[in-house]
Amino acid sequence: MQINVNLATRYYFDNRKLNIAFAVAGAMLLLLLVVFIGVAVANLGEIRRLKTEQARLDARHGRLGVAVSEKDYQAVVARIGTANSIIEKKAVNWLELLNRLEEVVPDGIAVTLIEPDLKARELKIGGAARNFAAIRLLLENLERSPHFPDVLLLSHKELKVTEKQLGFSFDISTRLVL
Fold first, then answer.
1. CA-CA distance, 122 to 148, in Å (whole number)?
2. How, if at all, do strands 109-117 and 152-160 pair?
């Protein structure tokens, strides 16, 4: 049996610097622990305060566990539906839509109805024209535009504005690509 002796038994790192690094890291961890404990205590106090405030409000209003009637529920649902329809109408980029329409509507056309349907991605346009040639020009402009594919003339009829003045009303449907 042969015994090997390692003559390099000296440590190659500085114990003093290592101990200082451990002490600094320990102090930082201790500081973080104190901060987290302080935040947790503050949160618990806030939770207790909110619970007492909730109990006080429930006692004042007497609404602890009161069920909502079907009539009240339907009224709230109706108000939510109204609000959602307003939000949907505001979701249309009206400036861009009006700019695109301005590009294609010729002289002699008065647009009286612009009704976008975002779910079906359709646009209904209604209005009046001096003559049918103006309506035809509007249809051609809409068909040439990349923003209004699938143009359909839904209806048109002759209007009598005065005894001497005639016009046409029209309704057009198109897909909406903005």
1. 9
2. unpaired
| pTM score over 0.85 | no
**Position 134: which residue type?**
A
Residues 6+ apart with CB under 8 A from 147: 100, 176, 177, 178
DSSP 77-109: HHHHHHHHHHHHHHTS-HHHHHHHHHHHPPTTE
DSSP 20-65: HHHHHHHHHHHHHHHHHHHHHHHHHHHHHHHHHHHHHHHHHHT-TT
Query: Tokens in use for 110?
Result: 């008065």
What are the pLDDT digits (tens) for 105-124? 999 899 999 988 877 889 99
Nearest to 107 by CA among 136, 139, 129: 129
SS3 content of the chain, % helix, strand, coil (to 5): 50, 20, 30
Q: 45-93: per-residue pLDDT in tens?
A: 999 999 999 988 888 876 655 677 899 899 999 999 999 888 877 777 8
